[in-house]
């Protein structure tokens, strides 16, 4: 006789979905201000996703909703397969969040900060002490563990912030502008650590940033948000690839009477378009930048223009941003910013 056995499907809800974060039609207004206007995106488990956008774009509002700290007017969201609106307590166990503002208590030591945070998550005893020590070592804070956090440098406080978000071993980590205000060297260290968390610990990470360079370096997928909407989405390479061709920058030796001279000189050069002159700086786009350079130089010389220097560059995320949001980071930052910090364009 065959014994029939019921097979219990033991897979958790989280394991059944290949996305660790799903946002669907998130909408939120603060009075007259529509902070989010239908934001949707999905983040595959184990990857780093970048939400890129200027001041006031809606990045923090999105993070607050996904981490149960705020409720949307409409839309739904799942983190680690858990509906954050229906089951916020379970969602909070699966996620860690490092807010835009410091969560560190400056009047307590680094170790005390971690142990307090752990107790808030229901940890205690030897397990909590071990976890705190592990994080202090991982974030190179072990030597300063018993000093007041108020005496830490900006970079140390930010590292402690990230450690606080990790105390209960979340599957999904939200980092709201993890490196704003850090100097370049400290920022590079933080990037390495964030990369390691995804690579070695299998965490899914959503980070928000103003830094194009940061999104380009860390995120495998990114979404550009502007005025509460996702205006572009893809891998950094895909987004850059959408801007066909390369940028040619020519520095002229002398002032030019008018842009007309330059346009006339370059009119006959194949594959060169979008010619713009600002002072002595001439910018154009070409399908094959390097191949076009000799013809461009010859045409300019023939038109009586002397060239001081020429460079060819691949399109940057800044160019992508400009195209989709219709304004540069600098311009966007100055209209109706919620924070006083200025947006910064990465160096690429
Ligand atoms: N609690 C609030 N009350 C009123 N308006 C708010 C509140 N929080 C956010 N807003 C507004 O909603 C919009 C989106 O703000 P949000 O903080 O999400 O932007 P952000 O992309 O995180 O910007 P930043 O880069 O400056 O941090 C802004 O216009 C902001 O002024
Ligand atoms: Mg913000």
From TrEMBL:
- Its domain of life reads Bacteria
BP-aspect Gene Ontology terms: daunorubicin transport; doxorubicin transport; response to antibiotic
One GO cellular component term of this record is: plasma membrane
Q: What is its main location?
A: membrane
What is the membrane topology listed in the Swiss-Prot or TrEMBL record? Peripheral membrane protein
Protein localization: Cell membrane
NCBIfam families on file: drrA
Name the record gives this protein? Daunorubicin resistance ABC transporter ATPase subunit
């Amino acid at each position: 006789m065959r014994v029939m056995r019921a097979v219990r499907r033991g897979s958790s809800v989280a394991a059944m979905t290949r996305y660790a974060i799903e946002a669907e039609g998130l909408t939120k207004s603060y009075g007259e201000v529509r902070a989010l206007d239908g934001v949707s995106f999905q983040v595959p488990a184990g990857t780093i996703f970048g939400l890129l956008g200027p001041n006031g774009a809606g990045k923090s509002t999105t993070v607050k909703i996904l981490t149960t700290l705020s409720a949307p007017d409409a839309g739904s969201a799942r983190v680690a397969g858990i509906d954050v609106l229906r089951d916020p307590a379970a969602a909070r166990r699966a996620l860690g969040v490092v807010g835009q503002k410091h969560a560190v208590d400056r009047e307590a030591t680094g170790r005390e900060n971690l142990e307090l945070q752990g107790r808030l998550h229901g940890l205690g005893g030897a397990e909590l002490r071990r976890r705190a020590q592990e994080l202090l070592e991982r974030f190179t804070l072990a030597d300063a563990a018993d000093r007041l956090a108020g005496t830490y440098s900006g970079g140390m406080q930010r590292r402690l912030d990230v450690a606080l978000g990790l105390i209960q071993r979340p599957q999904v980590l939200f980092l709201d502008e993890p490196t704003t205000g850090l100097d370049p060297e400290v920022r590079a260290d933080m990037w390495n650590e964030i990369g390691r968390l995804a690579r070695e610990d299998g965490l899914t990470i959503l980070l928000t940033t103003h830094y194009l360079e940061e999104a380009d370096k860390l995120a495998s997928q990114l979404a550009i948000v502007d005025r509460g909407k996702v205006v572009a989405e893809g891998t950094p390479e895909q987004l850059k690839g959408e801007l066909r061709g390369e940028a040619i920058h020519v520095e002229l030796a002398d002032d030019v009477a008018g842009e007309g001279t330059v346009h006339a000189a370059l009119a006959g050069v194949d594959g060169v378009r979008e010619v713009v002159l600002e002072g002595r700086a001439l910018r154009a786009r070409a399908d094959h930048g390097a191949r076009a350079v000799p013809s461009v130089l010859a045409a300019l010389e023939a038109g009586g223009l002397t060239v001081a220097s020429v460079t060819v560059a691949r399109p940057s995320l800044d160019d992508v941003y400009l195209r989709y949001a219709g304004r540069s980071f600098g311009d966007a930052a100055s209209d109706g910013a919620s924070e006083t910090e200025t947006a910064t364009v990465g160096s690429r």
